[in-house]
């Protein structure tokens, strides 16, 4: 009897998870409260109209290298920062929220190292240099918000069609801490590991087919506009060519990104992913030695998840998720 009741509990938990529907009210409430707390000057820096062209302009570069618009954390009160974090938690899972904090802490550590070395480029970095921008009026028609800084761009758009969660850029340098009390901590491990496992699991013919290019000197996330010609090319390995275990790895790759979202948003995004699963292709840049610098991408004509290992030996990762048919929509 106990086993049967446990089965029922697990079944209904899975059913609830699978059929979760995202309720935007928590995000709307946090964004409205944040906007209401702004001074006129803060509001002019952080709040924009829905049709403002800035709404679809994003980047992962640090301050100075990119003229980012929005209100940075340094210029907020402590209560306003609390509201920003409430907004983040309204859409992110524990995994996604922790990852966001780790990226910001990593940028602060970089700032402190450069400051100690009296390096003038230290002004680019630091956890205070992350910006919040709001477009439109939360809960009153279409609206969106962005949280962005070095190695991070989170974009959430709310319309009558639902919630768009892309583009989503997540990066870090270094991903693996090798010294001090943090030695062994490894951010974005799953993003890299499952792609490498998939590549290494391919037979020689499929592995050769997957490698569509040598690695450029400085590889980065490539799907920047969402209109790149290579998305329509039938390069790499087709999903239909993979065996059951390799298809499971495809799911694990996707979940490394979609798992950054709370349960309801994850369920919605995974459903959209499943609808295009048959059209997926796996592309690899680099050599057949996965220990060397590499880049890989899961893609369809309108979908891409990509991972770039940028610098040998220092674990500098850039990753990007695009749903080009639904970005900012």
Textual characterization of the structure:
With 329 residues, the protein is of the alpha+beta class. 36% of the residues lie in helices and 21% in strands. The protein is built from nine helices and 13 strands. The protein has helices spanning 2-18, 25-37, 40-46, 78-89, 94-116, 189-201, 204-210, 244-258, 263-275, and strands at residues 47-48, 71-72, 131-137, 140-149, 152-159, 162-164, 168-172, 211-213, 237-238, 281-285, 295-299, 303-311, 316-323. Strands 1, 2, 3, 4, 5, 6, 7, 8, 9, 10, 11, 12 and 13 form a 13-stranded mixed β-sheet that branches. α2 (25-37) runs antiparallel to α4 (78-89) and α6 (189-201) runs antiparallel to α8. The protein is globular and about 60 Å long. The protein starts with a helix and ends in a 6-residue tail after the last strand. Residues 1-18 have low confidence and may be disordered.
């Amino acid at each position: 009897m106990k086993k049967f009741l446990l089965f029922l509990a697990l079944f209904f938990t899975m059913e609830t998870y699978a059929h979760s529907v995202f309720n935007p009210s928590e995000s709307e409430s946090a964004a409205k409260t944040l906007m209401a707390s702004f001074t006129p000057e803060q509001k002019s820096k952080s709040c924009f109209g829905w049709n403002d062209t800035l709404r679809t302009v994003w980047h992962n570069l640090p301050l100075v290298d990119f003229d980012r618009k929005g209100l940075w954390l340094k210029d907020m009160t402590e209560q306003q920062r609390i509201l920003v974090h409430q907004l983040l938690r309204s859409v992110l899972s524990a995994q996604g929220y922790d990852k966001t904090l780790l990226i910001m802490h990593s940028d602060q550590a970089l700032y402190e190292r450069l400051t100690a070395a009296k390096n003038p480029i230290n002004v680019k970095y630091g956890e205070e240099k992350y910006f919040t921008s709001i477009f439109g009026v939360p809960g009153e028609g279409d609206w969106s918000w962005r949280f962005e800084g070095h190695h991070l761009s989170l974009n959430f758009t709310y319309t009558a069609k639902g919630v768009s969660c892309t583009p989503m850029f997540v990066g870090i340098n270094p991903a693996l801490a090798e010294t001090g009390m943090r030695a062994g901590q490894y951010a974005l491990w799953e993003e890299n590991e499952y792609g490498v496992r998939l590549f290494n699991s391919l037979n020689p013919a499929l592995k050769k087919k997957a490698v569509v290019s040598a690695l450029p000197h400085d590889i980065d996330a490539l799907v920047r506009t969402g209109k790149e010609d290579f998305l329509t090319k039938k390069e790499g390995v087709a999903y239909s060519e993979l065996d059951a275990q390799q298809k499971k790895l495809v799911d694990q790759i996707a979940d490394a990104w979609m798992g950054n979202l709370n349960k309801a948003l994850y369920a919605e995004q995974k459903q959209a992913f499943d609808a295009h699963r048959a059209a997926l292709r796996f592309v690899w840049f680099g050599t057949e030695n996965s220990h060397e610098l590499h880049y890989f991408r899961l893609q369809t004509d309108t979908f891409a998840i990509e991972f770039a290992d940028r610098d040998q030996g220092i674990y500098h990762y850039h990753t990007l998720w695009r749903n080009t048919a639904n970005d900012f929509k």
